Amino acid sequence: MNILEIKNVTKKFGDFIAVDNMSLTVAEGEIFGFLGTNGAGKSTTINMISGLLRANSGEIKILGKDIHKHSRFAKKNIGIVPQDIAIYEDLTTYENVKFFAGLYGLRGTQLHEQVEKALEFVGLSDKHKSYPKSFSGGMKRRLNIACAIAHRPKLIIMDEPTVGIDPQSRNYILNSVKKLNEMGCTIIYTSHYMEEVEEICSRIAIIDHGKIIAEGTKEQLKAIITNTKDVWIEIKPMETIDLNKIEAISGVKAVQMEENLMKVSSDVSVNNLNDIIQCLINDKVEIRSLKEQSPNLETVFLTLTGRSLRDH
Ligand SMILES: Nc1ncnc2c1ncn2[C@@H]1O[C@H](COP(=O)(O)OP(=O)(O)OP(=O)(O)O)[C@@H](O)[C@H]1O
Description:
4-stranded antiparallel sheet; ATP binding; Rossmann fold; alpha/beta; Alpha-Beta Plaits; single chain; about 30% strand; binds adenosine-5'-triphosphate; elongated
């Protein structure tokens, strides 16, 4: 069964179209990745799913039921981990989770037990009585997750939960996502870190300017670009390169510069390495090293949008 169906949804802010006629389905049991640059429309989409924002047109269903006609049902079945940490610093860890779980109608022993379980799940049981003021960014994130899962929703939506946290908390969160999924939850995981999405997601939608421009398993997405090969060329720092000249070489699809590393994506059927090297030599650019790279989601994104996820 589909846990989420988005059909022809559009959201405008004034004249600006943040989400553009988007359609998408997520099946129960998936870890679904939402990959896009800042401003692509991910948070707007999530805010519409959670009922925080209303779409200008289109339809959103949770477990087959329209989210506005069945708003209580939808809220009960969704847990949102927002991008901006939403916790009360003057409430204790326990009180925070209790507050959010209480919003879903949990009371008494059941409320207490589920709050305890959620805290245990995120590894904050021993911080029960502490105030989150003193917490690290990673601990606040974990508390935020506990607040979103205590009412045991079937669909958990995480909006960039690993931004700005230490690597240890990041691993903790990624493992939590996998564990929640094994426990039967469906997860929508939003990120602009393609390594994370590649690691944990069963299916991925690449979103750009409010539109889904590609969707599928990572293998299916990579298949889009099997006709592309990448070469990384390291040059002497501070040297300038005329990228237009490289772009003009036969077979070259995209050129990207990151400090003194140049990435040239070319049509796999064209052998243009000599031309690229010759072009650099002609411009008296000193080459330090050169390597080929197999395709990943970053390459897919770059090929589809002409831009890098990392630029944002
Ligand atoms: N309330 C608003 N009023 C006007 N424009 C908005 C509003 N909310 C979002 N936008 C614009 O809509 C676009 C999509 O924003 P959104 O926050 O959904 O992107 P995102 O993919 O989640 O990126 P980020 O990772 O930065 O949150 C952006 O250009 C943003 O500036």
